[in-house]
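Example 3.2
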Amino acid sequence: MSSSITDKPAFTHNGYMAIAAIAFAVATAIAAFLYQLSEWKSLDEFSFIPFLITILLIAFGVFIGFGIFLIQPNESAVLILFGKYKGTDKTTGLRWTNPFFSIKRVSRRLQTHNIESIKVNDAAGNPIEIGAAVVWHVDDSAKALLEVDDFKIFVAMQAETALRKIASHHPYDNWLGGEEAPEAESITSLRDGGEDVAMNLISELRNRCTPAGIQVTDARITHLAYAPEIASAMLRRQQAAAVVSARRTIVKGAVELVKEALMGLKDKNIEIDHERQAAMVSNMLVVLVGDKDVTPVINTGTLYG
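Structure, written as tokens:
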């Protein structure tokens, strides 16, 4: 992309001075016309010169008036003369320039582009739905207007392309089969990446939009979900991962309790053989780890008829 077109100062002046010049020209034209009327007593004394001066002054005022334009806050005016870029004026207020210049206004205010939910495959190949909001503004008015056909459409297309690229380089999450993937520490997931994913998206957008004079201020993911065709399966996977994690915590706690029980018996000088110790450990683990209420069994001995 060519970088020859960029903002440069334009040939403009204060618009109020132009209004003053127009007022002076009109006042002079009226004075000349009234003077001719006051001096005109007969056809022999008639002169076209005052009338010509009046017409020329009015034409001059109209010509000057075509060069007056207004620039709102956070707005730029790109000036073009017969297809050639002449400069950019960013001065707020009433301005004047060569009436032959074509004036194209460009807003430099912050704008938000909302990327609707799109379907894309993440780094693991899972189809997901993702959406984002991009905050941007025109930084170089000449580039934005003259380097691309429509800079708003350009931003929209580049934003969607950048989002697809970022989504395809990150997994939805770092869980695989209920356990965290071995390489999870080196991979930023879309679900847990947060600021890192946002900064990657902003960097990608800036690389794409800067050549067109667009500055990306912020970008955030607004929607993230598995595609409907795999959503139920992924939900079951997440539920299984949660169950496994909970069971792991329960088993770890049960082992600690059994250990404390054995140490307590030892501290009280209660000796039991290995067979009874193994049975006690087994029973305690069943009681502590089981997800059903315990049914006590009372040993009453052997009955003989």
